Amino acid sequence: MIVKNLEDIINTDREIYAKNKNWRSRRYLLKSDGMGFSFHETTIFAGSETLIWYKNHLEAVFCVGGEGEIELTESGEIFHIKDGMMYALNNNDRHLLRAKSDMRMICVFNPPLTGKEDHDSNGVYSLIKE
Ligand code: 9YT
After folding, report:
1. CA torsion angle for 110, 37, 121, 49 (degrees, to 10)?
2. What pLDDT digit, counting tens, does each position of 80-107 carry?
3. How far is the CA of 27 from the centre of ligand 1 (A)?
4. Which atom number of ligand 1 is nearest to the Cα of residue 25?
């Protein structure tokens, strides 16, 4: 069995900050853990707007705190994010994430992230924080 605590993640290479500081992600499970998916706790910081496009991964996200919204850039549809809301990007949907307050998100990726992805080549692009 794999057991991890927060102190096993913070200040290691499993704790990643976006270059523009829009988010922080703590990767509890990566490909090397052999589960077939990766499992992250990501905080999207208040006031940020981030354009994300995971072209090569399917991702499900469950909000456990904070508030904001997700906009699907193709259709313009906007969905409110709050504690208990889940979205699954089953079509590799390109999207904008806007955080009204710090949003705590539990994220699962299939295929699993290795932890070495370059966010740009992996389809994550950030907008300038206002
Ligand atoms: C909410 C969200 O899309 N999180 C993605 C995880 C994070 N960007 C990471 O671990 O790379």
Report:
1. 80
2. 999 999 999 999 999 999 999 999 999 9
3. 9
4. 10
In angstroms, the CA 18 to CA 106 distance is: 17
Residue 81 bridge partners (DSSP)? 68
Using most ligand atoms within 8 A of CB, pick from 13, 21, 23, 81 the residue to mutate for ligand 1: 23
Q: What is the tens place of the pLDDT at every residue in 49-59?
A: 999 988 888 99
Q: Is the dihedral of CA 72, 49, 92, 53 positive or negative?
A: positive
Write down how long the chain is. Answer: 130
Whole-structure pTM value: 0.91
What is the whole-number distance in angstroms between the Cα of residue 42 and the centre of ligand 1?
A: 6
Distance (Å, whole) CA 78 – CA 72? 7
The DSSP 8-state label assigned to residue 36 in this structure reads S
CB 77 within 8 A of CB 14: no
Question: Is the Cβ atom of 81 under 6 angstroms away from ligand 1?
Answer: no
